[in-house]
Amino acid sequence: MLTPEQGKLLLSLASEAIMKKSARIPDKPFLKEKRGVFVTLTEDEELRGCIGIPYPVKELGRAVAESARNAAFNDSRFPPVRQSEMKNIRIEVSVLTLPESCKLEDIIKGDGVILEKNKRCALFLPQVWNELPSKEEFLKHLSMKASLPPDAYKTANYQKFQVQCFK
Q1: Per-residue model confidence as pLDDT tens digits over 94-151
Q2: Which of 66, 87, 90, 99 has the smallest number of Cβ neighbours within 10 A?
Q3: Do domains 4-96 and 100-161 have the same CATH topology?
Q4: Sign of dihedral through CA atoms 148, 154, 155, 159?
Q5: How far apart are CA 152 and CA 25, in angstroms?
Q6: Does 36 score more than 90 pLDDT?
Q7: 3-class SS string, the chain
Q8: CATH topology of domain 4-96
Q9: Where are the domains of the chain?
């Protein structure tokens, strides 16, 4: 579990990575741990970018900096963030637990979920439950995000995870 102070450091690292298009990663032990992470950008409560690394393949500091830059400049759903927009952009860093295989019936509201079927894959962070509170709607939208039919979730493979979120 990360402390609020460590969360503030992750947020400042993400902000610096976007503002300067690079970031100096402090020499802190927790930043060297390999962790999954997502950086979500919103503007006026609307999604403006969200990219991350779901599995612990990179050191946390590097994963946050790269994900922040990618969310700001490489999310194909949005144009790149302009520096003039930054004053209105809200940054959220989600640090993931290790995703674990599970069955459909094991998924509960509040879980982050990775769906995989027919070599297609999609992920929803736990925060998406705020937008899609019913399990069926959540999983239908996750299926569609993976470019699958809405009912594909009924026979998909799953992993679930939790996040520690800093805003």
Answers
A1: 999 999 999 999 999 999 999 999 999 999 999 999 999 999 999 999 999 999 999 9
A2: 87
A3: no
A4: positive
A5: 41
A6: yes
A7: CCCHHHHHHHHHHHHHHHHCCCCCCCCCHHHHCECEEEEEEEECCEEEEEEEECCCCCEHHHHHHHHHHHHHHCCCCCCCCCHHHHHHEEEEEEEECCCEEECHHHCCCCCEEEEEECCEEEEECHHHHHCCCCHHHHHHHHHHHCCCCHHHHHHCEEEEECEEEEC
A8: Glycoprotein, Type 4 Pilin (3.30.700)
A9: 4-96, 100-161
Collect all residues with Cβ–Cβ distance below 8 Å to 82 and sequence separation of at least 6.
none
Tokens describing residue 164: 């520690």
Prediction pTM value = 0.93
